[in-house]
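Write out the 3D structure for:
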Amino acid sequence: MKITELLKKETMILNLTATTKDAVIEELADKLDGAGNLRDKQAFIKEIHHREGQSSTGIGEGVAIPHAKSKEVIEPAIVFGRSQSGIDYDALDGENSHLFFMIAASAGANDVHLQALSRLSTLLMDEDFRRLLMEARSEKDILDAVDLKEKEKLDSEDEEESAPATTSGERPYIVSVTGCPTGIAHTYMAADGLKAKAKELGFDIKVETNGSDGVRNGLTDDDIKRATAVIIAADTHVEKERFAGKRLIEAPVTAGIRRPAELLNEAVSGDVPVYKGTGKGGESSSSGGGGQRSAFYRHLMNGVSNMLPFVVGGGILIAISFFFEDPVEGTITPFGEMLSYIGGANAFFLMIPVLAGFIARSIADRPGFAAGMVGGLMAANGDAGFLGGIIAGFLAGYLVIGLRRLFSFIPKSLEGIKTILLLPLFGITITGIIMFYAVTPLAAIQNGLVDWLSGLGTGNIVLLGILLGGMMAVDMGGPINKAAFTFGLAMIDAGNLAPHAAIMAGGMVPPIGIALATTFFKNKFTDQERDAGKTNYVLGASFITEGAIPFAAADPFRVIPSIIAGSALAGGLAMLFGAATEAPHGGLFVILLVNNWPMYLLAIIAGAALTAVLLGVFKKKTV
C-alpha cells in the first residue's frame, strides 16, 4: 500500500491556525474526524496525549509525528499539517516544529497499512524531502513529493534486502534492535538513522525492528556471532539473552534518531561492557552515574505493573463481597463468599509471587522467573508481605545472574541444559534456602511497620496523608507518583487500608482540579485547553492522574504547585476522616467501596477546589 492511499487531499491543512502543542493535536484530529476516520475524536486525542506522555513525538528538524494505534480509528489514515511560523511541540532538539503528520492506525490495522504508516516516518528524515514539503504550494504538490520519495525508498529497500549482510574485512560490523511503545514511527526512524550514519562512518550494520507489524529483518545467530557490538535503541522490552558475551549498549529509541553517530562510535570504541545477563550493560553506557538507580526502578516497576491486574481485580472483588455480608449477624451469603474466595484467596494472594517473579525476570530474563515466583510465594506464605516479595525478586534475579557466570564454562552446544535445567534448579534451591531463613525477620519488619502506622496519632496520620497525596501530583505517573502508589499497595497487602485511600484521593485531584479551573476560570485558558479540560473530569474520576500532564507541561511553575497543594489537602483530609479502601484502583467508580465514603468524597472535592482556585489566581489571562 502506498502512503498516498492513506494521505488524501481531504486530510491536509497547509496553513495551521494552532499555536500550541495541544491546539495542533486538536486541529489535526478535527480534520481526521471531519474526513470520517474517527469514531470518538476525544477518545482518540486522549490516546495521542498518552503517547506524548511517554516521549515527545516532536522528533526535531522541524518535524512532529503524533501517532496512536486505537480502536477509535475506523480506517488507518494520515493527516498532514504545516505551520510556516512554527509551533513549540516539545521537540527533542528544542526547536519549533513546522511539519506535522498525525498517524492514526486502527486497532485491527494489517501489516500492509502499518508498513505504509511506518515508511512515512523514515522519509521525513531526509532534509531535501522536508524542504519540498515546506515549499509545496498545493495539496497535489505534497502528494507528488510523497509519491516520488516513497518510490525511492522502496527501491532502496529492495536493494538492501537482496544484498547479503556481510562484513567488509576490517570494517566494524554492528547489529542493532529498535522498538518503541506503539511500533509505528520511532522504531523505523531510529533504524534508518543508525543505518544512514553507519554508512557515512564506513561501518557495516544490520538493524532488527520490533514494530507493530512484528519483528522485521531479524538478527540471526550468525549475525550476532560476527558482530563487533550490539546497540539496543528501544523503549520496549527486548530479549537480550541472545546477546550474552557481546559488547552491548542500551539507549532510548530517540537516541537512534537524534544521536546515532554517538552510539555507533561508542559501540566500536571497545569501552562498552560485555553483556553477561546482568541487565546492567545499557545503564552503564547510557545512564552514567544514575544507571543503578534507574535499573532498580525499572526492575521494581516491571514487577508492580505485572502484579497490578491481580491487585485491582482481586481487591475490588474482595470489597464487593462486603455488600453481601450481614452487618448484624456477621454472616456472608454464598455468592459473597465466592467473590471473596476468588478475589482474596486466589487473585489477591498471587500479588506477592507475581511481583517477585517479574522483578527477577526483569533482571535475569526467563531463567530468573521461576526462582522469583518461588521466593515470592514463600514470602506470601510467611507473612513477609510486600517487603519480602521485593527482596525475593531481587535476590532471585541477581542470584541467577551469578549462577549464569558460574556456569559460563559450559560449552555453547549445551546452552539449553544450562537454561532449562541448571539455572532454574539451583536458582529455586538457593533462593528457597535463603528465603526460608529470611522470612521470619522480614515478617517481623513488615508487621512492625504496620503496627507503627496503626499506632500513629491523628496529627501524624494526617501528615502521612498530606505527604502521600502530594507525592501523587509531583510527577503524575513518574517515579515519585509510583513510589507512593506502590507503598499504598504494600499497606493493602498488610491489612492497613487507610494510606491507599489517601493516595487514590491525591491521584484524582489534579485532573479534576484542572477540569474545574477550565470550567470556572475560562479566561485563563485557551479554547483548546478548555476542551481538553472536559475530558479531565472523566480521567480524574477514573484515577488517571496523567490527564494533568499536558497542562503541567505547558505551564509547570503555576500548575504543578497548584495540583500538589490540592492533592496534599485531599490526602490529609482522607486520613483525617478515617477513609479506607480495599479497592486499589477505580477512582469514583468504586467510591461506595470506601469506608466513610461521603466524607472521602468531600476530601476529593476540597482538594480539587483548592487546585482550581489556585490555578484561577496564578494563571495569566489568555489573550
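The mean pLDDT is 82.
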